[in-house]
């Protein structure tokens, strides 16, 4: 049985550039590096950067993305830091909670989000998506 998300691995085209982005801009902790990769972390998250010559820096057109949590008090400062680093925004926020959608140097779609599943479900109960059903434990 699954117990949670173990780690994320992102294919990157330039390891040094991506390592600098995740370390310096997003402030993940570097745990280990090697010729073709790096392990970084945040509390509860293990991220692997893996050098891949097949990786294109063009973002995909679908909505697949990876969201990082942050406190509401830190949101404005964090977004200002991303904008100062000329990070590209890829979408406007259309849902509950403050969010900033941005691209990493390889075009991976990322999000900085204030809120959690409980706050999202509460907002959806007030204004459900088309066809939405809730599965409460009873």
Automatic annotation (TrEMBL):
EC primary class: transferase
Domain VOC: 4-115
UniProt-recorded Gene Ontology molecular function terms: glutathione transferase activity
Coiled coil: none
Signal peptide segment: none
InterPro entries, alphabetized: Glyas_Bleomycin-R_OHBP_Dase, Glyas_Fos-R_dOase_dom, GlyoxalaseI/FosfomycinResist, VOC_core
EC identifiers of the protein: 2.5.1.18
Keywords of this entry: Transferase
NCBIfam families xrefs: Fos_GSH (NF000496)
Protein name per Swiss-Prot or TrEMBL: Fosfomycin resistance glutathione transferase
Native organism: Pseudomonas tensinigenes
Lineage of source species: Bacteria, Pseudomonadati, Pseudomonadota, Gammaproteobacteria, Pseudomonadales
Gene assigned in the entry: fos
């Amino acid at each position: 049985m699954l117990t949670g998300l173990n780690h994320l691995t992102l294919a990157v085209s330039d390891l040094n550039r991506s390592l600098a982005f995740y370390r310096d801009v997003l402030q993940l902790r570097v745990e280990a590096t090697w010729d073709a990769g790096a392990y970084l972390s945040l509390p509860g998250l293990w991220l692997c950067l893996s050098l891949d010559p097949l990786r294109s820096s063009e973002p995909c057109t679908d909505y697949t993305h990876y969201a990082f949590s942050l406190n509401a008090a830190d949101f404005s400062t964090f977004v200002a830091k991303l904008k100062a680093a000329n990070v590209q925004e890829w979408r406007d926020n259309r849902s509950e909670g403050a969010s900033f959608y941005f691209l990493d140097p390889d075009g991976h779609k990322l999000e900085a989000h204030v809120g959690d599943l409980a706050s999202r479900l509460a907002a959806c109960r007030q204004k459900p998506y088309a066809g939405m059903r809730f599965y409460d434990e009873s």
